[in-house]
Amino acid sequence: MKIKDIVNRDIVTLTNCEHEPIHIPGSIQPHGFLLGLTLNWTIDFCSANIANYIDAVYQDVIGKDFSAIFGLKAQEEITTYINDDETQLIFPLEIDLLQKSFKLSIHKSHDIYILEAEPYFESREQIAELYSQTIHFITSMNTTKTLQELCALVAKRTREVTGYDRVMIYRFDKDYNGEVYAEDCRDDLERFLGLHYPHTDIPAQARELYLKNQLRLIVDLGYEPVPIFTVDDVANKNLDLSLSILRSTSPIHVEYLQNMGVGATLTISLIHHGRLWGLIACHHYSAKNISPETCLAAKLQGEFISSQIDLRQSTDEYLIAQKTALALEHLTGLDLPLNPESFATIISDPELLNLCNAAGVSICVGGTIYKHGITPSDHQINSISVQIKAIAKEDTFNTNRLIDYVPELETTADAAGIIYHSLGGGNSIIWYRPETLSEINWAGDPEKAIIKDSKGLHPRNSFNIWKQIVKNQSSVWLQPEIYTAASYAHVLHKEIILLMLSEEEEKYRKQSNVLKETNAELENINWISTHDLQEPLRKIQLIISKMLSEIDKVSPQAIFESLQRVSNSANRMQILLQDILKYTRIRYTKEALQKVDLNAIMVETLDEMKEVITETGTVIEYETLPEIHGIDFLTKQLFSNILQNSIKYADKERGSVITVTASKEPEPYQLSDTIFCHWISFADNGIGFEQEYAASIFKIFTRLHNQEQYTGAGIGLALCKKIMQAFGGTIRAIGKPGEGTVITIYFPCDHLNTVLT
């Protein structure tokens, strides 16, 4: 039978050091010996140092039946222990092997049972004493409030129980860089509290083993690894020691600890939600071994921390959660109208920032950006929205380091961190946090964790404090902040959907009203085309027919008068057609109106009407007029039609006087269901009208007086009404027969999106 060792002699290089197979070293530490048994109790593996503990050598043990070497009684005790899973979780098996007492740790690795035997301690700690210390710890634990206070207490109690020179609670960040979160050590030692260590100090394969095996003991870092031997019957034969307590340590890790001056270590895993949250790292500056009972007590300290992480973090975040919940309750309780102005109200509410403790917020709706607090520029907000939307899962995203996703924002510190939520249809809400500069004290340069020289790879030997200034990142968003932001984004999304439905309903309502008015106009236009246009045309035909039938009898003077009557009728037709064309050009569109100075409009209108004003002797008085939202040429036509209407219906027995007054400042004025902010009144001393006709005078082709008395097609005031509708305003008239007429136009507080096409 040929025997060989299974020592892993693969060379570790810079390219593969992160994949070093530390779970199959093929060797163990020398403070115990190892046996590997097949399922039929054949000894297939044995460490070379077995002769140091019992009267046997590995060459004589390998390949033999276990009971043939150690006796049937020992085999039965091990069988009973293996079948009692609860016992294995608490204490190793106390057993006599060849008349010597050992503590035996047993676990299964694939199809091999691994037995690790260590001698009894001469001065074992009493269970009662460890129990008393644990009770004292639990009592003290209840006095701590925060997670850090608890960790500090664990560090102190663990050092008291184990007797190590230094005990540290080591916490990982999301990238597995470590921080000394709590510490207790000898007074003469330099403190490591607050120092950071790069993720390369504990590589991925080591972290994986810490998840599998929660307790790791190195008794003497100056040890010589003991090889494990086996029968040479399979190529590349090895033994997975992931759960072994005697497993030999990576030489790079041993050198790393020796460079720190450490002589022995105990490491306990802190596991939270299946992830390695941190470690309890115990260092001694000389060789040190501890009993299984002490190891168990130390492991229990780690269980206390792991069980308290959620609770203590919840306590730390309780006040934040309470604040954000109150902000959410306030915002969802707002009673806002279903119109775009609601977003201006929402964005200015300070509770929108308190919702997730942000410094700034922006809401993008329908191409408009509403923002408040410290935010990027509109261009940058659009860029962020486009790029984050492309990578956001389920339309939500948060980060405290936006530069990793939107590199062009490197020059701004206003948006180092964001919470993004899509609101559908290209709309979004984004909360911002500015850059928070922070200083990290590393235990040595993190870029030089592994050094290569002529002798191979080595861990760094300098642990001098190396300072790093971290830029381009904000404080981390906490879960209560993320959850509350998501809740309100959902509420806002529903508000936008309701707004869109409301706008669609309003649009259809307006279109329906426009359609009704258009149908009425078409009926009137049809009537005028069959009546008013035919009446002058009939006159022209009659006059010309009479002239042709009496051409020899008609005097030149009569011909001239007849032709003049034909010209007047033709002019009436031309004016009527022009008025119809003007009226039909005004339509509702979605273009923005512009600011119009009514004083300038009044001056231009009076200049164009100078001849008719002089000819009629009309006096027009006006005061300072406001600015409104409209269109210049339509506003001029509006003023011209109103003034011409007053001049046309002037009282012949007294001079025509028109007085124009207006509101000085924007002031809410409710008319029907609409709020207006500016009004302009045109008051004349003309013939007036009965108030019962106040609405009908604005209908197209409506006349209160016959054609012979007052010329016109009845389009002037109808045109004024349509112009005011296009501006989002309205027009009203008050008349008294024999006294005059007051026509008032009302402009809305916020300009409407209606203009001429």
| β-strand number | 31
Q: Level of helix content?
A: 25-40%
**Which word captures the global form?**
rod-shaped
Number of helices: 19
**Could you tell me the radius of gyration in angstroms?**
47 Å
Question: Distance between the terminal alpha carbons, to the nearest Å?
Answer: 103 Å
Percent in strands: 15-25%
CATH architectural group of the largest domain? 2-Layer Sandwich
- What can be said about the biggest beta sheet? 8 strands, antiparallel
CATH superfamily of the largest domain: GAF domain
Keywords:
757 residues, 8-stranded antiparallel sheet, 19 helices, Beta-Lactamase, alpha+beta, kinase, transferase, 38% helix, phosphoprotein, 6-stranded antiparallel sheet, 24% strand, Phyto_chromo_attachment
Structural write-up:
The structure is a single chain. The chain has 757 residues and is α+β, with helices and mostly antiparallel strands. It folds into 4 domains: 3-119, Beta-Lactamase (2-Layer Sandwich), CATH 3.30.450; 127-220 and 235-316, 2-Layer Sandwich (Beta-Lactamase); 334-435 and 474-491, Beta-Lactamase, CATH 3.30.450; 588-757, Histidine kinase-like ATPase, C-terminal domain (Heat Shock Protein 90). Strands 1, 2, 3, 4, 5, 6, 7 and 12 form an 8-stranded antiparallel beta sheet that branches. Helix 6 (147-162) runs antiparallel to helix 9 (292-332). The model is unreliable at 704-713 and 751-757 (pLDDT under 50).
